[in-house]
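The aim of this short unit is practical: by the end, you should be able to scan a pair of folded records and say something sensible about each. We start with the first protein, listed as its amino acid sequence and then its structure tokens.
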Amino acid sequence: MTSTIEHNEQKPITLRTLARMARLEEPFACLTCYDATTARWLERAGLHVLLVGDTAAEVVLGYDSTLHMPLDVSIALTAGVKRGALNTVVMGDMPFMSYQADEASAIRNAGRYLTEGLADIVKLEVDRSFADLVAKMARAGIPVCGHIGAKPQQVGLTGGYAAAGRTAAAARAIVDDAMALEDAGCVMLLAEAIPEEVTARIIESTNVPVIGIGAGPACHGQILVLQDLLGLTEWQPGFATPVAHLGTTIQSLAEQWVSRVANRNVTDHRYRMKDGEADKLEA
């Protein structure tokens, strides 16, 4: 086992890189990530953005929703991902109640993602009512991605996860949120579970990169939860068709290990005592 992280010699991807790609209509790829080892492989694969999502509460810590993600753990995971992918944009995902209580603590917590978490940008689930907070974060030098559309941190209000923007009024509200958040200083938007018509209007009405998850192919960037993509979760949303079923693969390989242990067929490697020392042990 080793803790050494080998990095690509690729040119670093920055927020400026993503803005240029959006202007040139070159799609960029994003996935969630929660550890340095996986981050290293994803960077080698050419990912542009790694989001250390509050979904870690579910897929890493075993909670039943993202509401339980501890702030300190999120920051630590973010730092680990950045250490594994130095040339990739790493986005910290501010957990529930880490930015809603008051502006001073929100700015302080967001700043921790940059100083302790090594993040390049932080993501907040917000609407236009958070414009003042976003503006203050921007003035403090904190790059912000505004998460609009469906908001998993608000499942307590909505009674569960649901798509957003499915009526004209709701769609207009999301577009208005996008415009207000850009005006406030958001350098990026993430739109979740909204109809393609709403996505198109957002892209027409703003000048920042828009990442989509279940928001149609027109988004500048696309993101999925890595565990959904790899078939490691028990259930995947409709917009996250697995490309593999690694859960059953892991189970099969682990079963083989259990069998090898039972048969004492663990490894061919052996440590040997120095010459003459075994005789001394028997004496």
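Turning to the second protein, read its sequence before its tokens, just as you did above.
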Amino acid sequence: MPKLQRINLNLCVDHNPSAFLLSVHRFVAQVHDPQWLSVFLAELTEEDVTRTIYSGFYKQMVARGPPLADKVVRVCTALREAMTQSNENQDFYLQPILSTYVRAGHVGEAISLADSDQALSYLALLIDTDKLYEEALGVYNLQKALKIAGKSLKDPKEYVPYLTKLQQMDPAYMRFTIDKRLRKPQSALRNLVQCKDRTEECIQYVKSSGLYTLALELFKDQPEEYKQICLLYGDHLLNKQLYEEAGLMYQRGGDVDKAITALTRAGSLLQCLTLAAKQNFSEEALVEFHLALLSALLNQEKHSEAAELHSLMGKHEEAVSCLVEGRLWSRAIFLCHQHKQPQLVESLVKPVLLESQSRSLMDIRAKVADMEKHSTRLLVVREQQANPDRNFDALSDIQSDTSSLSSFSTSSGGTRSTKNTRKAQRKLWSLKEGNPREEQALLYTITELIQNTERLTSDVRTTCLALAELGLDTEAGTLQSAMTAALEKIQQIRHSVWPGSTAKKTGSDADAIDPTLTDMQLKFPPTSCISATWRLDIYS
């Protein structure tokens, strides 16, 4: 009746999905005609028609459940089971059963089931013959692929030689060739691994496909091939600058020299030293290795590891200098006393610590001075903007700049466009007096200064602790007082620049200044970056 009345057949399911799935055997028995079942399957969609084209008839049904998830697949599966379990001849429901596989996306299974020429012809009605041909290849059924190709517009000269060539291949290599054509690299590799006489081709395929992890799994019981894959993977990781992982792969591949080179570039101290110990380097080679590793560590600012390496080389003075350079004051002091060289505290640690305290003082005071200058200027700018006689020509200029920036940003031009974009960006955020966007530029700069100053609290605590350890209470107290005064000034500036506002940004937004802050974001004060435990009570 639904078909005669031109009712969308999805309504049979959507009216009550649960009831339909429970009574699917009765549905098959009542419809009975395979052609009508095929029509029903052809019309199935994921759309719930009770919520779309027939929604007007269901407005009064308040307590309706959610739409049936994966509707097409679930209905096809249920109908297939019902038709398979019916008392009819096996071929009676063949066409609708094939439809259930096709509609559910299991074309390969439909091809496997379609043994007769009539069944293949039916599939050719449901699916484009070129796609059906590819699917037949995908299940490695060359005979059916040949029959399907014969039903298409393909030239026999195009597919017959290819299928003949596949037929003559070793089964595993045939599957690999087909998978490669169909762009199924993982399946292709699994099949190629089974071809024992094609190891070199397999390794080259791993390299071209990048399936190193899968290859390691497939070759785990073949030591020589496994090592080759490890070395190739190491080269791949090295090119991606993943030096530590490359070093691990080189180790598995048995190339210790390459492993040491990669791990040295990674600055992996302990792993490098372990490998060096295994190599039994000569004294001269070991010194050369240590120097290369030391250079890598310092380039990566791994001062702690560099100091440890200096200590292993017996260069305790250099180790202390390394720690001092990294501002690791407490460790530097400990190392001096550990090696019974307290004089190094006076000669190496104390002078640099005092210099660091002095630089920190200057930095804090300079930032506070800049904040005061810019916040004072901001008040003047805001007062000028409140004046109704403001310069509209200037506003016109900045609107032109803004539109220029927009056009530059969206263009795909080359170097000139990029340079012009940067120039326009700098002009928009210029602190030059009279710039129509001077208020936004000042807000951005003040925000940056506040966060950079607050981030100094952690370093100030570390410096004050080291100064206290050396009995330099005056210097420590001076530094902490300067930081305290700076934070008090910041609090005043927050209230004057953003009166009545609270911090808008949270979480990771507090970690870095975004150079593309919008004007709306600048209307709120920045989130505090103050270290919670920075202040020492002994200097409060």
